[in-house]
Amino acid sequence: MSDFGALILTIMFPNRNGEIKDITLGFDELKDYYNTDTCFGAYVGRNANRIKNACVMLDDKEYRLDKNDGENNLHSGFVRSHCKMYDARYGKSKEGNYVEFSRLSPKFEQGFPGDLEQRIRYTLTDNNELIIDYRMTTNETTVVNPTNHTYFNLNGQDSGSILQHQLEIYANSFLEIDEDFVPTGNILNVENTPMDFRTKKIIGKQIDYSDIQISRAKGYDHNYVFTNDGSKYVIALYIRLSQEDRDVSLRADKAESNSITNQRALLWDFIRNHEEFADCTVIEKCDDGYSGVHFDGRPQFTELIDLAKTGKVNCIIVKDFSRFGRNYVELGDYLEQYFPFLGVRFISVNDNYDSKDFEGTTGGLDVAFKNMIYDFYSREFSKKQRIAWRRMAEKGEYNAPNAMYGYRKAEDNVHQLVVHEETGKIVKEIFELVASGLSPLKVAKILNERGVLAPSEFQNLQGFTKQWSRYGAKCYWTDDRIRCMIKDERYTGMMISLKTTSFTVRGKRVKTPPSEWVRVEDTHEPIVSYELYVKANSMLRQIEFRASGKSGRNIYHCGYCGRKMQGDKGILRCNQRYLVKECRCRSAVIRVEETDKVVLTALKQQIQLLVKEAELSKNARNKTIPYSEGAEIATLIKTIATMKKTWMPLYEQYTDGKLSREDFLVEKKKYDEETARLEQRLYELQSRQEIQQESNQQIEKNISQLNCYVDQMELTEEIKEKLIDKVNVYSDNRIEICWSFDSGFFDLETMHKCG
What we know:
Strand 30 and strand 31 form a beta hairpin. The chain has 17 helices and 35 strands. The chain has 755 residues and is of the alpha+beta class. Among the domains are: 1-160, Beta-galactosidase, Chain A, domain 5 (Distorted Sandwich), CATH 2.70.98.10; 234-382, Rossmann fold (3-Layer(aba) Sandwich); 407-548, Putative Large Serine Recombinase, Chain B, Domain 2 (Hect, E3 ligase catalytic domain fold, Alpha-Beta Complex).
């Protein structure tokens, strides 16, 4: 990017083959941007597009503009906004890293009235999205209609036509243009026209159709309209019930239930009581058992937003804001940005909020306060829940939906474990078999051959869990299941809680260190003695040591079931083949020596790509600093030095009485202000250069570190530990490498062929 014209100079991005391409049109020299009318990558303002007869009427006053497109005005005039210098600053928001350009357009610049403070922010998100925000402030009625004029070619700027590109535009209508490409003001529906991109389609698919608008523009050169006229709505009722709402009937302080039934009845009553919704299409989206803290991960919510994006829903009604979401920041984004942009009306019944009345705002301080309260409630609820779980753990109470295999819950106390007569015997037998020297794999095979129900299968039949789906409706004993049972000290009567994970406010689970585990002895009847537990675990460690075959970390996993590959003589297989007669895991087989070479080769290729990416990134960063800045710095240094030389003669005139004190102070103030301004500008430019130099040094350091692995001749333990998360093995000698580093531009998973 450049502060000259707030330009987007270059966007480097990999294609499907991993090749880095410049996907924007532009010039190699900054001066060429000044000498062209193409507006490549430019910010265009004050007005983008054409104005009929180069004339606007504002507050009953006529303002004449440049006629630079026949009799019309195009992109505001002859001297356009992309030929101006802008102040730039870097920053980071919740969306991602951004660059913000700002400039004051003085009154009557380009012929428009009013001073206009312009702020243009480019944000690059972690999802490879480019977001452009415009913030304009004026002191008079004026025209404000900016845009960005970047030309994109996702195949690379030198790859020819974009007619095979796919495009999606979430708009139901567009502006008609006349013979001079000027919008007439008439809004036309995209339905049954080549202008319909509400669903993804190839750009060139209908560009040759016999359509007057296509003919006039010689293709697509139109404004799309995202507003809704409100004459008829397609309404979506969104209903959500989370886990914290399920105890509502037990809470005396709750005024009304958040049950699915209650929400549905309330919303339908609202529709029936408002005539404007008569004969409107109404659909319903319901998420049952999902937290409102996150906006992603809710299947029905995701479908709802997709319908809104494609224009298939233009009105959303909820019981209250908390049903839609409890994150007040993201909720505000939907109310103020997404829904107004999509032309979607949003109604929260109990909050008396209707976006139609608030024109894309959150409805004032009261609504914002409510949203903040909802978010605070989520945090407070999570905090109280963690405290409650901690207290239960300290009492030795069992806290899980289902009893662990071998036990059942006591009839009079759901937090008390009682030995299950049938499965308890199976657990004890498992410990005895492992203690006798049998491997977990052999024990699992014995149980499967006897037809003993695996834990998941047993719970299925009891109605405790969802149906097992990995291998159809049947699940099996596995060596992993046996191994986990042997290591579970709870079978000795010891209750261990908060061992694996800890609940956080945002719904994430994190591992807890052993120091935070809560251990309480003699909380329930043991199935095995402590002596048998110790013996079985000791034998298990011996078995696992013998089975490992070699030292070091095993990075190879079955791509179908996720189990670690096992074997000897340099050949690894998935042990699931011993447990399930007909499964894809039987075809997951590799030779370690050969596969190690493939992984190492793939790593070197990835490193080469990363090095290339880093170098391109450095070059792209360097291009963001205009060539003129070096000259400006030199000029500023010279100007400041010259001004300092003028100070002494001025002072001498004052001391000689040739200049009055009042005049001297006036001149001194001018001198001080101008010097401060120049020094501030010099500081900003020099700081940017220093930041750029530091960034380049860091990139060079990263490149140097990556190159250290290029000459490696074998797949070392250091490489496995630092660079490889795992390698998934499939049939036909295919492997999937999951790197443990983030390349920034490249997928973390790459597919390779062995042999």
